[in-house]
């Protein structure tokens, strides 16, 4: 079954907007590792393997013992997947980068909401 051209164009438009918004986010915070990674990713292959998982936390030792340590390690692995380039960062790096990434995402959300509201009015 073929998709109507309007659906294809809409999907292409959405992908283009997402790419441009992500690039603006990356360019707005170039002093952070996550930003440089995101910019590199956007400029290189658009078909990055999402199943890639880091071995950094798997090989690092967690200072907590038992169940609590395993839970912390699990949460840090999840965090690594959310931050661009997080798979390549160690625990210290990911924790220092996550704050700036969240702030930039919040600013991006404010700008996008503003654009949508301006277009609706």
Automatic annotation (TrEMBL):
Compartments reported by the entry: Nucleus
Keyword DNA damage (UniProt): no
Signal peptide start-end: none
Domain of life: Eukaryota
Name of this chain's protein: IBH1-like N-terminal domain-containing protein
Domain IBH1-like N-terminal, first and last residues per copy: 2-44
Keywords: Nucleus, Transcription, Transcription regulation
Primary localization: nucleus
InterPro entries: HLH_DNA-bd_sf, IBH1-like, IBH1_N
SUPFAM superfamilies linked: HLH, helix-loop-helix DNA-binding domain
Keyword S-adenosyl-L-methionine: no
Source species taxonomy: Eukaryota, Viridiplantae, Streptophyta, Embryophyta, Tracheophyta
